[in-house]
Amino acid sequence: MSFGNKEWPKNPKIYEINTWPWLNTLSESFNNPITLNSIPDKILNGEIRFFDAVWFMGVWERSPASKKIALEHPGLQSEYHKALYDFKDEDVVGSPYAVYYYHVDNHIGGIDGLKNIRKRLAERDVRLILDYVPNHVSVDSLWTFESDLFIEGTLDDLMAHPYDYFSIDESIYAYGRDPNFPPWTDVIQINAFSPKAREKAIKTLLAIAEICDGVRCDMAMLMTNKVFNRTWGEKAGSIPDKEFWEEIISAVKEIYPNFLFIAEVYWDMEWELQQQGFDFCYDKRLYERLAYGNASPIRDHLKADWSYQSKLVRFIENHDELRAVEKFGVEKSQAAAFIALTLPGARLIYEGQTRGHKIKIPVQLGRNPFEEDNKLLIDFYKNLLKSIPGREFGSASWALCEIEPFNSSDTSFSNILSYLWWINNNYRLIVVNYSPIPSKAHVRIKPFHFDTHEWTFTDLLSQKSYSYNGKDLYKYGLYIELNAWNGYIFNIKKND
Q1: I want to staple 137 with a disulfide (CB 3.0 to 4.6 A). Which of 71, 82, 141, 191 is the partner?
Q2: Which residues contact 239 (CB under 8 A, 6 or more apart)?
């Protein structure tokens, strides 16, 4: 069973799993070797059932060269020991972003295991997302046997910049890079301007689209014409008339129209990548405002056009970021999750986030540390995931609500964020106090039409209900009083 060309939910909830260490943990928990082919039903019927898709991060065949480089890297060694108190060399399996070949690694179950888990997820109405790394492959990748795919250099380049270039037989190639950082010495730079490289990307993605329902594209902005030209200049050749992603995404969607493309993107380039064909783009700006700001800059961020808002991926944790409880603290992380998981767009949760895990593990490791679960956070996320606007709100409208002071001397109203989802007679009102102090406000619930009816507001988190008269709601707004970092998800119903 698969979803074929069935449309995705409009605001999908995505569960990211670092596949290799996750399977290792399951094997230890069940005292039995577990691969993608043998994941117990208990696991699939647990937390995963709350999501629309699982992103199995790191399923592709790992590079032997990348593993060796990762094992010998002195900076990474300190990270390994920080993550695993009992670290051993065999814990290093290599970077999942130094792809040796786009085959499912046999260690985790191979292609048969992936097909099996995709079928079992689909039976639970859960889709499958995998990685695609457009910028590079491993230095020992099987792709290196092909020509005209990579940025090439000269002997002078190698002599002058030995940390930027390397040789394979008689050829000299550039290491992959982000222009703001030193090169990644375990990967070779693909030439985004090369017609042959673009053909290879299309062929690869069409093969991937046969075995999953979408891809998360690593560092997608590096392949745009302006960034790639700035990074590589004349080494890349002439700038193509068409953007890399416009060419690649349109070719894949011609055959798989509902195949989902998610961009990892930074540098305020989300809108550009959306215009080039991506269904969703990372919302790093929201993450930063949730981490460092108060309610006001978050509110400003949410004033952007719907066409932009509805195509963002909201998150407070993923494999690249610090664990949420370490970044935010427990209480603030709950309020941040409350916001990130109830906004328009895709909502991303990283495995371990809902259990309050604190240790960020390097992606080169194949084993998780042991951590105690935080029962408070487990209960919080379980309640939240059941209460947030779901598939029945797929085509719903959304709007920010106006916040007014309780009285002229109380400034705490500015700490309150509120927004409304509605479709037909279904309404969800989200209200959050994003601050460390108790706050109160009147919320103007626009464009809701209350008339003179009586209305019941039921908080889906506490199951407490409150009754209001439509005339009072028009006149005063909804009075809200919330403790620090707390919130409501109101279901609004007209009384018969």
Answers
A1: 141
A2: 193, 225, 229
What type of residue is 357?
H
Residues 490 and 467: their CA atoms lie apart, in Å, by: 12
Residue-range domains of the chain with CATH = 13-139+184-392 (3.20.20.80), 397-494 (2.60.40.1180)
| pLDDT confidence of residue 164 | 96
What tokens does 315 get?
């998150």
Is the predicted pLDDT of residue 1 greater than 60, yes or no? Answer: no
How far apart, in Å, are the Cα atoms of 253 and each of 54, 249, 372, 398? 21, 6, 43, 28
Phi and psi (nearest 5°) for 25?
Answer: -65, -45
- Of 362, 489, 376, nearest to 427 (Cα)? 489
Q: What is the pLDDT of residue 391?
A: 79
How far apart CA 288 and CA 301 sit, in angstroms, is 11
Inter-CA distances, 28 with 31, 42, 342, 450, Å: 5, 15, 34, 55
Find out whether 314 and 340 touch, Cβ atoms under 8 Å.
yes
pTM for the structure as a whole: 0.96
Q: Are residues 127 and 259 in contact, defined by beta-carbon separation less than 8 angstroms?
A: no
Closest to 59 (Cα-Cα) out of 212, 220, 249: 212
**pLDDT tens for each residue of 386-415:** 998 877 888 899 999 999 998 888 899 999
Helix axes 244-255, 195-209, angle to 10 degrees: 40
Residue with tokens 């990372």: 282
Which residues are CB-contacts of 449 (< 8 A; sequence separation ≥ 6)? none
Closest CA to 314 of 357, 271, 348, 275: 348
Residue type, 289: R
